[in-house]
Amino acid sequence: MSVRLEETTDWPALYAIYAAAFGQLAEADLVRHMHDDGDLILSVTAYTDEPVGHIAYSKLSLHETSAIKACVLAPLAVCPLFQKQGIGAALVRHSLKRLTETGHDLVVVLGEPHYYGRFGFTSRLAERLKTPYDGPYLQALALSDQGKDAHGSVSYARAFAELK
Ligand SMILES: CC(C)(COP(=O)(O)OP(=O)(O)OC[C@H]1O[C@@H](n2cnc3c(N)ncnc32)[C@H](O)[C@@H]1OP(=O)(O)O)[C@@H](O)C(=O)NCCC(=O)NCCS
């Protein structure tokens, strides 16, 4: 299994992965909308002979601490046949390294603390943000010291408002 930047030719397979993993197409459509809006900042595919997993990040604007370069991890999916083999973790770790290298300070995710906690995400850091998704499933990870100072209201990419 390898991990690399998403390529346009991955798209049919990515739609199939999201449909199988979530039982719906809303998440694949979210990625497509973020791409079309120019809000996708990182899109990474895991593949064997063909794509088996995908992760995407979009820009997050912090209103009170706008110097902090922040993003949202969403969505993430691994084809059910390939789950529990470390592919999700490889996608998260590879992409977080890349985001750190490109000067990002903060990543926010809405998901299972049992899963995202292993990468260092905490709800404690996210509690200082004011988002449409506040609650125990909202978690954040600082990639720099500056990221630890994040607080206040945020704006997600426009495509999130269209999610049902
Ligand atoms: C979540 C997901 C991406 C993990 O991918 P993966 O390749 O199976 O993950 P890994 O092999 O790296 O890690 C497996 C671990 O994740 C846990 N896990 C998988 N899905 C989980 C979930 N929805 N909630 C909590 N834990 C989950 C497994 O129980 C396992 O835990 P363990 O290491 O303590 O045994 C994958 O299960 C998936 O696509 N699920 C459906 C879509 C989804 O829920 N995406 C996340 C949205 S935030």
Short account of what is shown:
It comes from Microvirga aerilata. This protein has 164 residues and is of the alpha+beta class.
Walk me through the structure.
- By secondary structure, the protein is of the alpha+beta class.
- The chain has a single domain (2-162), classed as Gcn5-related N-acetyltransferase (GNAT) (Aminopeptidase, 3-Layer(aba) Sandwich).
- It has 5 helices and 8 strands; from the N terminus they run βααβββαβααβββ.
- It has helices at residues 11-22, 26-37, 87-101, 113-116, 123-126, and strands spanning 2-5, 40-47, 51-62, 70-78, 106-110, 129-130, 138-142, 152-155.
- Strands 1, 2, 3, 4, 5, 6, 7 and 8 form an 8-stranded mixed β-sheet that branches.
- It starts with a strand and ends in a 9-residue tail after the last strand.
- The model has no long low-confidence stretch (mean pLDDT 97).
- Coenzyme A binds at residues 21-22, 75-78, 83-89, 111-112, 114-115.
Write the SSE topology:
Blueprint: E1 2-5, H1 11-22, H2 26-37, E2 40-47, E3 51-62, E4 70-78, H3 87-101, E5 106-110, H4 113-116, H5 123-126, E6 129-130, E7 138-142, E8 152-155
Parallel strand pairs: 4-5, 6-8
Antiparallel strand pairs: 1-2, 2-3, 3-4, 3-8, 5-7
Helix pairs in contact: 1-2
Protein name: N-acetyltransferase
Domain N-acetyltransferase: 1-144
Pfam families: Acetyltransf_1
Question: Could you tell me the radius of gyration in angstroms?
Answer: 15 Å
- Poorly predicted sequence stretches spanning 5 or more consecutive residues: none
CATH topology group: Aminopeptidase
SSE class: alpha+beta
- Terminal Cα separation, in Å? 33 Å
CATH architectural label? 3-Layer(aba) Sandwich
Number of domains: 1
Tell me the overall shape: globular
Q: Which compounds are bound in this model?
A: coenzyme A
- Give a short account of the largest sheet: 8 strands, mixed
Please estimate the helix content.
Answer: 25-40%
Rounded mean pLDDT is 97
The level 1 CATH classification is Alpha Beta
User: Could you tell me the number of beta strands?
Assistant: 8
